Amino acid sequence: MLKLYNTLSRKIEDFAPLNPPHVGMYSCGPTVYDYTHIGHLRKYVGDDILRRILEVNGYEIKHVMNITDVGHLVSDEDAGEDKMEKGARESGRSVWEVAKFYEDYFWKSVETVNTKRPNVVAKATEHIKEQIKLIHRLEKNGFIYITEHAIYFDISKFSDYIKLSGQKLEEKEAGTRADVFIDKQKKNSQDFALWFFTVGHFKDHTMRWPSPWGEGFPGWHIECSAMSMEYLGDSFDIHTGGIDHIPVHHTNEIAQAEAASGKQFVKYWVHHNFLIVDSEKMSKSKKNFYRAEELQGKGFDPLALRYLFLTTHYRDKLNFTWESLVAAQNALNNLRETIREWEQPKIGCAEFEQKFMNAVNNDLNTPQALAVMWDMVKSNNPSSAKAKSILEMDKVLGLKLDECLGKKIEVPEEVQKLVAHRENARKSGDFKKSDDLRHKIKKLGFEIEDTSTGPRIKKI
Ligand code: AMP
Ligand code: ZN
Above 70 in pLDDT, residue 171? Predict the structure, then answer.
């Protein structure tokens, strides 16, 4: 039985979907105005692991993710400048080109860490009609008011507004991330915009659409409620996001959806903790903002990053250091080299598979699952049985282990001879010769790793 921590109840609960075996899952996607970094990747790998665990438990998943390709406000300091417009101004491209460029970059990045594509990818700009429809429902139910600048959701009309965060309204940072431009007609600083009019502050906003209330563009939160309800219905099973989304974005999503439908919006809220770098928040100004391609440039396999993510529970902070990435790469290399020697899969090690499933079903305890996997790898079971089980485990881990399993590397005789010469040179202390030979071997497409049991040859 799968157990999940639900932010809404602040408890670990048994997972019981609304309409088994179907599971509707919505993930907040990227705002495509900047490069995808490894912090984002932690979140999307987290979603991917959850989805895979649901699948191995036999559920049929409909996974929906949005792409926020409408600009939104950056912060107070930027005087409420729209993220996408800012990106366009700084790069000399149109807002549409900026969105397309960073969306493509996003897909390339998440593919390097082997995440499955959601079944439905919904772009905010392609669902303006659905967003207007939801604002209509809210208008009909009496939850909105309209000023010269925008249409707002009136939070005083929605009684359970803080149920997700449990945060008192006074403690809530006013206007975090969105809706921070000054509108004197706004009733309550916590009210949030559903639709901005292209007047005043936004008179030059590039992206704009007609609406029954006037030309403009949607607020940030409305897209996720509108698109999730469009594809998954008024009530669905799982909604994911980073912990930063709890007090504002997801709180507002619940208010919009439940005020419109009168039903519970989402049964299980799953939130991932952050990736931090050298104990600091990742940010461009601190120059600790890394992308997958930068890791590749330094010779790392992005799947080592995925392995690193698996070593920490999704609800714990993960401190990224280069040492931790080296350790993850070494562990993954070891695993790959070990399983290359294994026989073809047969039967399986049922006890280890059961322990592995118990770990992942216990609120996605991937560090424990990895420990079980290593216990199995090092066990005395026949390699054919271990091979069968490792493929089962990799359905969750997603490390592409099938690409190495049982695929012994054929080393040409010429290379074998050079390796033997190098080993002799190394043993006799002739490190110059040993290094020269290593280079020669490399030119032939092979690399040597010196281990306690002798040199290990790897294909580059
Ligand atoms: P954004 O494009 O900024 O809306 O972020 C997309 C998703 O990535 C959100 O769910 C964020 O919570 C998540 N995210 C952003 N930075 C990090 C980080 N450093 N670690 C983990 N998740 C992050
Ligand atoms: Zn969202």
Answer: no
